[in-house]
Design a protein that fits this description.
Elements: E1 22-27, E2 31-33, E3 39-47, E4 61-66, E5 69-71, E6 76-77, E7 97-103, E8 108-115, E9 122-129, E10 175-176, H1 182-196, H2 205-220, E11 224-225, H3 227-244, H4 254-270, H5 277-286, E12 292-296, E13 309-311, H6 316-323, H7 332-345, E14 349-358, E15 361-370, E16 375-378
Parallel strand pairs: 2-9, 12-13
Antiparallel strand pairs: 1-3, 3-7, 4-6, 4-8, 5-7, 8-9, 10-11, 12-16, 14-15
Amino acid sequence: MENEKISFRFIPEKVRSGEPAKIVLESSHNKIDADRGSVAIITADIVDSEGKQVSGATNTIKWSVTGPATLAGHSVYESEVNRHNRVKGVWYLDMPVPNVIRSTGAAGRITVMVSTPGLASGLVTLEAVEVTADNSIISEPVLNDEGRRRVFRPEMSAKSLDEPDGELKRTFSEINLGKRSEQDYKSEISGMILNNNPSTDTTTAEYKTLVSLFAAHLLKNGGMLIADDYNFNIGHYNNCRIITGFINPLKLPPLFKDWLRKYYAEEMILKGNEKNSGDEMNWLNWIPSGGTVVISQTDNLPVWPKGTIITAKTDLADLIAAVHPVFAKYSPEAKERALAFIGKMNPYVIISETSEVKDGKKITNLTYKAERSKPILIPLIKFISG
């Protein structure tokens, strides 16, 4: 059977778009053969509430497939611009982006969903159609699935967002609040969450981020929030709370611990970047106790707790020297070791890589910059002694 292709191509407008509102999907086919070899290319893009393309969108997106097909590509796409503190590993630059699904050999309806926090998910369906084998020349029996195992392929996260456990319960109902103000949405959605989860702490950075995210979603989509999108974001919240639970016992400055929680809330709940709880626990426990918090800031606001050092400089080397003046006398090798160590322990240090050729050899240089108005922890001198 010849695959039937879609006869049109969605070309969104690229001018004067509004705020991102939803994901739209396009499939290269509306039917594929159920033969384990047929594929379809699914393209995801982000548009505003009127369907106009949002140019340069860099959201982290998650792909999922139900029905007789599997993803040939990865399930999580993260943009290069969201990976500034990780030198290697780039998924894509900006939307639109494609992925590939492959038939499992069974006939039936295939549904592909692409989700990202704060936006309505995109859905597309296609059919896997049973194929009658031509055995007139060579007899070829249909493969049996019994005893067959899927080839293992590591993913970006060991924990699935579809798992039912977690601090907040999930829902099976669509939410439709109609058109209201963003503040009204915050109040309504918070009430719904607390009604199902009365013991939830509403004062945490994680909870406030989740409520703000839901309110923005409702505002962009006319008060609509389907169960899949609600549960998708609840999954990120639950995973985030597992990780931030490791922060409380750490012997670190309270300001730095508060901002670690904000960092995880922004990364996992607001941006949807998945993180492995075991890896993050190991990283948090690796950060040495004590230390001094330094803020790169050019004016007097905001006001930080007593004991915080304020500087207008952004180079990490200058921030270290502000706490430990002897650092300026370190050898270049010792300085580089200290910069790498402190850069690794601070989520708000931007690590950039540049290359140049000298005497026919490629030389790679790393620069370490502190984000403005974000706490940077400088450890005790004994941890970076030259």
